[in-house]
Specification:
It is a single chain. The protein has about 325 residues and is mainly β. Helices cover about 10% and strands about 45% of the residues. The protein is built from two helices and 19 strands. The strands form four sheets. Strands 1, 2, 5, 6, 11, 12, 13, 18 and 19 form a nine-stranded mixed sheet that branches. Strands 4-3-7-8 form a four-stranded antiparallel sheet, with no helix packed on it. Strands 9, 10, 14 and 15 form a four-stranded antiparallel sheet that branches. The radius of gyration is 26 Å and the shape is globular. It starts with a helix and ends with a strand. The relative contact order is 0.17.
Length: about 325
């Protein structure tokens, strides 16, 4: 009887799936939903960011013949205003985005900013308000852990921190910590192992533990001390280099970290809603789930214009 039920279930699933497979060519083009390509704008502003950056692309509508490629739009007019002053943000060909140093148009807490982006046929607007307050980082703890692997040892740098919640408001937080690191790598040249110094930027990861990440809401914690999960990052490991004669030469990284910047970002509602929509979308990408739209606060287009104000601590070595 169990075997019969299993066979019937397979047959029913085949009927259902077969009914879903309707070729798009069977539907007249006139009956398909029509849509125009829209400007897609992405920008995060903050008093702590050295540049004001705006990324402008365009959407590719489904079922529609369009010349849109979804690539960067390089000929738009991008303006930013605080209600009293306005600045034109030029396109940076190297970065492939619109950018100006913040020194030319300082971003301040408690202010509302207005963004306008237009090209030959489209015009979109967005606004956001920079949070006026920053939390207070109370303490942090950095440590190193050596993890034995089958072939080598990994050195892991860990970070814990806590901060005091801003009272009397509903606050959305994001944790961030990173540093520039200089280290040595080895390579074989002229039958010898050479050493070169390189530099890269590394970020701590907060989401390696299931159910934990860098985002927080102060529900029922008004004015309380909030604690982070354990963040970690794997530091560069020694590199083994094999010469033509089979000899192995190990080059050790000799790591140098000038400073670590630890931040607690106080996010505006746009940043929080957009991030939340990303989480919902990633959790709904299954064959039987309802599609989840991404949050947008761009009028006439798509995208997100958001802001944050951050507390920072620099740990100098």
């Amino acid at each position: 009887m169990k075997t019969l039920k299993f066979i019937c279930s397979i047959a029913l699933l085949s009927i259902i799936c077969g009914a879903c497979e309707t070729p798009m060519t069977d539907i007249p083009r006139s009956e398909l939903p029509q849509a125009e390509s829209k400007l897609v704008v992405s920008s995060i502003i903050s008093p702590q960011l050295p540049f004001i950056n705006v990324v402008v692309t365009e959407s590719i509508p489904l079922f529609t013949d369009t010349e849109s490629s979804g690539s960067r739009v390089e000929d738009a007019t991008v303006r930013l205003s605080d209600g009293a002053n306005e600045i034109l943000i030029p396109f940076d060909a190297e970065k492939k985005l619109y950018s100006i140093p913040q020194s030319k148009f300082p971003i301040s807490g408690s202010k509302t900013y207005y963004l306008t982006v237009s090209d030959k046929s489209r015009n979109v607007t967005a606004q956001c308000s920079v949070p006026g307050k920053t939390p207070v980082i109370k303490s942090y703890e950095l440590d190193t852990v050596v993890v034995d692997d089958i072939t080598t040892k990994d050195t892991i740098l860990t970070l814990r921190m806590n901060w005091r919640d801003i009272p009397s408001d509903t606050n959305y937080y994001k944790l961030s910590a990173g540093f520039d690191i200089e280290y040595s790598i080895g390579f074989v040249k002229d039958k010898q192992v050479k050493e070169s110094r390189v530099s890269n930027h590394f970020y701590f990861h907060w989401d390696w533990q299931k159910g934990k990440n860098e985002y927080f809401i102060d529900h029922n914690l008004d004015g309380a001390i909030m604690n982070s999960p354990l963040a970690k990052i794997t530091l560069p490991r020694p590199s083994d280099n094999i010469l033509a004669n089979g000899k192995k030469v190990t080059v050790y990284p000799k790591i140098k970290i000038p400073e670590i910047i630890i931040e607690v970002l106080n996010l505006d509602t746009n940043y929080h809603k957009y991030q939340r929509s990303l989480e919902v979308k990633s959790n709904s990408e299954t064959p039987f789930a309802e599609p989840a739209p991404l949050y947008s606060n761009v009028n006439g287009g798509l995208g997100c214009f958001a802001a944050y104000n951050a507390a920072q601590v620099k740990v100098v070595f």
